[in-house]
Amino acid sequence: MKLQLAIDALESHQAISLVNATREFIDIIEIGTPLIKHEGLSLVRLLKNIFPEKELLVDMKTMDAGEYEHDFSFEIGANIQTVLGLADDKTIAGCIKSARKHNAKTMVDLINVPNLVERAQQMAKLGADIVGIHTGIDQQLAGQSPMAQLEKLAGNVNIDISVAGGVNLDNIDQIIAIKPSIIVVGGGITGQADPTEAARKIKEKMR
C-alpha cells in the first residue's frame, strides 16, 4: 500500500517545499492538474531531478490524443499518468501504449463514471495498471466521499485501485481496512499546519 501526495499548489517552489517536508513518508508525488496547467511540463523534469527515488504521477486527466499527450511527460521522467475513464477506449489504449514504451504506468481516473465496476473491469482487460476512485473537490464540497465507491469496487476487479478525495486522519482507518493499492492524500497533509507530522501519522497507520 503506497501513500501518494497530491499537490495542487500553483507554484513550483511550494510543491518542492511540500515534498521536502514529507519526503520520508510518501511513495508517490502527484503533480495535480491545476499545478501542471500552471507550471507546465518543466516541473516534471525538475521534480524528478530533485526527488529521483520517488514515483512521479502527472495528473493529466487526458481525454483525447492519449499516446501523443502521454509521450511528452514519460519522456522527461513521469512514472504514472492519468487518463479519464470517460475517454474513448482508443484514447485509453494510446495512453497504455505510451506507458509500455516508457516502462511506465497508466492510471484510469473513474471520476463521474456511472457504471463503475463494469468500466473498471474493462480497463483491466484493456491493460491499464491502475483504476482510480476519485471524489473531486467540487463533489467533496457537496458532502461526498470515496468510501461508497471504494467498497463497491473492492473485490470486484483484478487491478490495482487508487483512492482519492477528502482522505485524512479522520477516515484513513476505514480506507486502509479495504486495502487499496494506493491512498492519495492532498489537503489532509498539504493543508495542515504541520504537513510532516500529518504525513507521518498517516503513513504509520498504513504500515
Question: How many β-strands, per DSSP?
Answer: 8
Strand order of the largest sheet: 1-2-3-4-5-6-7-8
Please give the CATH class. Alpha Beta
Percent of residues in helices? 40-55%
Largest sheet: 8 strands, parallel, barrel
Radius of gyration: 16 Å
The CATH superfamily appears as: Aldolase class I
The mean pLDDT is 93
Oligomer: single chain
Descriptive keywords:
207 residues; TIM Barrel; 8-stranded parallel β-barrel; alpha/beta
Provide an overview of this structure:
With 207 residues, the chain is α/β, with parallel strands linked by helices. It has a single domain, classed as Aldolase class I (TIM Barrel, Alpha-Beta Barrel), CATH 3.20.20. The protein contains 11 helices and 8 strands. The chain has helices at residues 12-22, 33-39, 42-50, 66-74, 89-101, 116-126, 137-141, 147-153, 172-178, 187-190, 195-206; strands spanning 2-7, 28-31, 55-62, 80-84, 105-109, 130-134, 160-164, 182-185. It has an 8-stranded parallel barrel, surrounded by 8 helices. Helix 4 (66-74) runs parallel beside helix 5 (89-101). The longest helix is centred in the middle third of the chain and has 13 residues, at 89-101. The N and C termini lie close together (8 Å). The model has no long low-confidence stretch (mean pLDDT 93).
